[in-house]
Design a protein that fits this description.
This protein is of the alpha+beta class and 153 residues long. The chain contains two helices and eight strands; from the N terminus they run αββββββββα. A four-stranded antiparallel beta sheet has the order 1-3-6-5, with no helix packed on it. Strands 2-8-7-4 form a four-stranded mixed beta sheet.
């Protein structure tokens, strides 16, 4: 009988102790939740001086409006554009990234940090990556000449 009273008291105390703490239900996301179709874009090989763009599409999988607060570009060669309007639950949006290859020869990898009001697991940052290879005009011409030689054989 005493054991039953002690167990009952413990369960009541444990219940009151957790009464003000929200419980996270991992099967149900609350708030804005962002899901990208792809988080990496490969521009491939391009000629120095080319301006290329890509689009990162995303969907708000949560139950609150999603707001893209900022997209931090790594340098002046990479310029992001995005809608300042909230993306409602179930709706989609996009972040356009323009890469300027002038005076940037060689292999590149650029990471863009996306700041949102989205619920993130483990408070991770959202990182998008663009990559590619910029050939100098001389290298591009050489590559074109080599392709012509292969086609003529």
């Amino acid at each position: 009988m005493k054991l039953g009273i002690i167990l009952f008291s413990f369960l009541c105390f444990a219940g009151f102790a957790n009464a003000g703490v929200p419980v996270h239900n991992p099967s149900r996301e609350t708030g804005a939740v962002i899901q990208f179709e792809s988080m990496v874009h490969d521009y491939g090989t391009m000629k120095e001086g080319d301006i290329k763009e890509c689009v990162f599409k995303f969907t708000n999988k949560g139950d609150a409006p999603l707001i893209i607060q900022n997209v931090e570009e790594p340098c002046g060669c990479t310029v992001p554009f995005w809608s300042k309007e909230p993306v409602m639950p179930g709706q989609s949006g996009e972040i356009k990234v323009v890469f300027h290859s002038k005076e940037r020869p060689g292999v590149f990898r650029k990471t863009l940090a996306v700041k949102t009001n989205a619920v993130l697991k483990n408070h991770e940052e959202i990182l998008l990556m663009i990559k590619g290879n910029v050939l100098t005009k001389k290298e591009w011409k050489k590559k074109g000449d080599a392709a012509k030689d292969l086609n003529s054989k």
